[in-house]
Amino acid sequence: MSKIEIRSPLPGTFYRASSPDVPPFKADGDSVASSDAIGLIEVMKTFQEVPAGVDGKNITFLVENEEPVMAGQVIAEVEA
Amino acid sequence: MTIRSILVANRGEIAVRIIKAAKALGIRTVQVHSAADADMLAVKLADEAIDIGSPAPKKSYLNIEAVVNAAKAAGVDAVHPGYGFLSENADFADAVEAAGLIFIGPKGDAIRLLGDKVAARAVAAKAGVPTVPGSAGRLATIEEARGVAAKTGFPIMIKAAAGGGGRGIRIAADLADLERHFPQASAEALAAFGDGGLYLEKVITKARHVEVQILGDGQNFIHCFERECSLQRRRQKVWEEAPSFLLPAEVRAKLCDSAVALAREVAYRGAGTVEYLYDETTREFYFIEVNTRIQVEHPVTEMITGIDLVAEMIRVAGGAPLSIHQADVEAFGHAIECRINAEDPAKGFMPAPGTISRLVVPQGEGIRFDTMLYEGYTIPPFYDSLVGKLIVWAETREACLERLRHALSGLVIEGIPTTISLHLALAGDASVARGDFDTRFLERWLETEFAAKTGATAEVA
């Protein structure tokens, strides 16, 4: 069983949910489909959805909500 | 009292602009900055700099306590809020005054009244200014929003009650759109302004965005004519002009007078902007909002009137009466401002922070470039994508467009994508030359003319 990394496409601030008062897109341990959003990146006041980009299960987030991220930084891992 | 020292509670190009105005007046400057902004230009130019917190705006530039504590520690006389961030936050203005310092802007009460777009609509109506049909007040729930939309019809604008500058505004084409955008708009408003309150306004489908610059000292109120800001993308102004050259003289007079009436209604102090939608076919104008701060596009007004708006707001805040009477305000020639953003027009205007490897600024008569860029500067991803404003003035609009094309060709910013190519295309466009545009022109034009020119995709995938 291999781990697949999901990287941030942009530098900015990472958000787990679309707004502070709704549940996160994905909880730790969830399965994801390639087109599923796993979070938002706020870059220069613009919010961009981060798609999982891969099908997988048991997602583990490596970045906290509202944490600054660099482009290419690993945000989460899933099991193939 | 005459202000002898100022704390600049902002960043980017406007912080640089404020520091330059303050230096020209012989005023000491203290610049606050986040941990991500330690090497920004305003920090280098200021007499003193204070780190007020981590990169996230709400932990630094939106943190009232941190900014006020910095002002007290630095022993300044006054605080200039710039635009965005805390500039239209009444609690901030009150906190600055409670600390015994001068807030360079209107009183907290006036900001509260006008900054709450819902209350401002009522003030405008009282001053005899026509307003756009929409919700009577703030909307607590999506159910209430549905009710208003049922009466006004679609398309409808979802606007942040605490917003301004086009932030936190979305257009809903139908009910499904409204349901989808409402929570996102609220979240964006909360992130940007610390207030998630929303209201609705019917979309006036074919209109120009025209706005009037006002100045007040609490007793005297004047206008410095109008600006034309119809070229917008996603409600963000991209290109601004002064004057609005196709506006009939009698409409201009009525428009400018109505802005002064509004300023008088609230005993306005400082620089402000009254924004309107103008329907060319009916010659009707509708009040949208008042921005109780210096505006991004203030330089075009400065270029045609010769008035230094930032210096004037500092003087007035210090207790001086307006240095200019209405009869002294004369407009001469034409000015255009192009907002240069760190965005890639070929990739749906995707914002792209990065490091400036080369910077060449055009020089010459009638050319001004307000910026925070310098070679070697790394733009952080946490803030606005505006990196500079190219402002060009000439005796006629035609000559201004000619000079603008020349200036844009001479402006070189390497290391990041910028919107210079967009402005070059606009400056050479026949519709733009005729002034034949409204607030929805640019997005259509981007999808057709500009896409054909560049092979660009209009939207981010």
The proportion of residues forming helix of chain B, as a percent range, comes to 25-40%
Q: Kindly provide the radius of gyration of chain A, computed on alpha-carbon positions and rounded to a whole number of angstroms.
A: 12 Å
Q: Which ranges of chain A are low-confidence, i.e. pLDDT below 50, for 5 or more consecutive residues?
A: none
SS element count, helices of chain A:
0
Chain-averaged pLDDT of chain A: 92
| Straight-line distance between termini of chain B | 54 Å
CATH topology of chain A: OB fold (Dihydrolipoamide Acetyltransferase, E2P)
Helicity range of chain A: under 10%
CATH class value of chain A: Mainly Beta
Radius of gyration of chain B, CA atoms, in whole angstroms = 21 Å
Structural class of chain A: mainly beta
- pLDDT averaged residue by residue of chain B: 94
Give the count of structural domains of chain A. Answer: 1
Structural class of chain B, by secondary structure, is alpha+beta
What top-tier CATH class of the largest domain in chain B fits best?
Answer: Alpha Beta
InterPro entries (chain A): AcCoA_biotinCC, Biotin_lipoyl, Single_hybrid_motif
Domain Lipoyl-binding (chain A): 5-77
Function (chain A): This protein is a component of the acetyl coenzyme A carboxylase complex; first, biotin carboxylase catalyzes the carboxylation of the carrier protein and then the transcarboxylase transfers the carboxyl group to form malonyl-CoA.
Pathway (chain A): Lipid metabolism; fatty acid biosynthesis
